[in-house]
Amino acid sequence: xxxxxxxxxxxxxxxxxxxxxxxxxxxxxxxxxxxxxxxxxxxxxxxxxxxxxxxxxxxxxxxxxxxxxxxxxxxxxxxxxxxxxxxxxxxxxxxxxxxxxxxxxxxxxxxxxxxxxxxxxxxxxxxxxxxxxxxxxxxxxxxxxxxxxxxxxxxxxxxxxxxxxxxxxxxxxxxxxxxxxxxxxxxxxxxxxxxxxxxxxxxxxxxxxxxxxxxxxxxxxxxxxxxxxxxxxxxxxxxxxxxxxxxxxxxxxxxxxxxxxxxxxxxxxxxxxxxxxxxxxxxxxxxxxxxxxxxxxxxxxxxxxxxxxxxxxxxxxxxxxxxxxxxxxxxxxxxxxxxxxxxxxxxxxxxxxxxxxxxxxxxxxxxxxxxxxxxxxxxxxxxxxxxxxxxxxxxxxxxxxxxxxxxxxxxxxxxxxxxxxxxxxxxxxxxxxxxxxxxxxxxxxxxxxxxxxxxxxxxxxxxxxxxxxxxxxxxxxxxxxxxxxxxxxxxxxxxxxxxxxxxxxxxxxxxxxxxxxxxxxxxxxxxxxxxxxxxxxxxxxxxxxxxxxxxxxxxxxxxxxxxxxxxxxx
Length: 570
Prior knowledge:
Elements: H1 2-9, H2 13-25, H3 30-54, H4 60-82, H5 95-123, E1 127-130, H6 147-156, E2 167-169, E3 173-177, E4 180-189, H7 192-198, E5 201-208, E6 217-223, H8 235-242, E7 247-256, E8 262-271, E9 278-288, E10 295-298, H9 313-325, H10 330-334, E11 342-343, E12 353-356, E13 362-369, E14 378-385, E15 391-394, H11 405-415, E16 422-431, E17 434-442, E18 448-455, E19 462-465, H12 468-481, E20 494-509, E21 512-519, E22 525-529, E23 544-551, E24 556-564, H13 565-569
Parallel strand pairs: 1-15, 22-24
Antiparallel strand pairs: 2-4, 3-4, 4-5, 5-6, 7-8, 8-9, 9-10, 11-13, 12-13, 13-14, 14-15, 16-17, 17-18, 18-19, 20-21, 20-23, 21-22, 23-24
Helix pairs in contact: 1-3, 2-4, 3-4, 4-5
Transmembrane segments: 6-24, 36-54, 60-79, 99-118
Keywords: DNA-binding, Membrane, Transmembrane, Transmembrane helix
Protein name: DNA-binding protein
């Protein structure tokens, strides 16, 4: 309660000042002191109740507003009860009137200071820019299940929760549990009456984030301190009572440690002086034991190792917004808009999408677009480290002319208008040197239907499939059949392969013909575009070939040059 008590006390200095002026203007009496005490106690209780419910951070702008409201309500009442006249026509001739004028002027001044602090907020971001975009490899980001689909599955499993009628599903959070990427979501009370009946929630659900066929699992763990608990068992109130001078970013989420115990995690920031604007260099993470309410505060980079995202998605969304808009200051963001970038809102959590890299580190992905309307090309994208809050902006030639995530979702939406299927969770991958949007296709109920692989610089190049592996293979085949396409990743070296053809197949597409074949004693599937090697369409069993090939890890080879002994001899 100390945080709420301190905030309430700091809401009354101006009232005390007006009270002193009132007593100076009129001779003190027992009745006057009694009225003052009654007014003060009533106002203090009401203000304390407001702070208890609203939990406003103890910052100068918030305290200024509270002081203004307290004075606006209590001072006229005090003057009325003590019989002190106040001239509304000539307020500048009295000390109390001058104070009121100064207070009114202070509000727009505080607003202007807040605008000016936007530049400082931008400068506080730990950031770097690279000139070359490096989209993800398909092995780097194993999250293939959209949160909408995962939530839908978990909702259908809520019947396994004891006293199901008390609860609803809480915030879905992606994280590593036993080295597997999972969605984790607590069950939360549906209202105050259910809280009064239940007191504790029953536990949380987990569901793999890389398998659309996986089923959710309920883990029974009683939790007393939760987001949906009331009074002093509410997580945000627990944190506020200890750290009222910090601003809480978004809703607390649960993360599970190596022993299977859940903890509530909340990102905090200390605002820039005289404002509510975030100082990105002063982030903290509060860790709350949901059983005992014990609270620990850490720097994000020093948080316990089981916490994958001490920096919340809400905080990452703020960082993207400040980074994109205020690169040259807040005035430029309003008028000139030089180099301004707007984060797209296609992310799965507060405009960002959490992903994991090949080292198991969690990042938030967001693509950036131009502030100019009706332009759906991406300028680049950001990755924000969920442990350190470091932001990296990727741009460069690989991103020139590619569509943004909004455009990728629109392509999917237009493909199935009669079914109302929609795109979800677009992520930019590097598929054999080609920036590619990979999009989940969901039905109106949030159920997964297909994957869509969309070539980011060609809106007509789209491949749909039932599984990620099947769709990726089909997409790669279509890439290989596309004349003039960079068929292989730049980091795959050419190999010289020779052998005897075992089987061959010619396929035709709108882009031309391609030949697929295998060699005796070799399971690699080789593909050559007929536009590169016209004689390849005549390949048959027993032909001896020598070729320059780029072979990928999935057992598929792209032929750059080929020599067919029997055909060249003729």
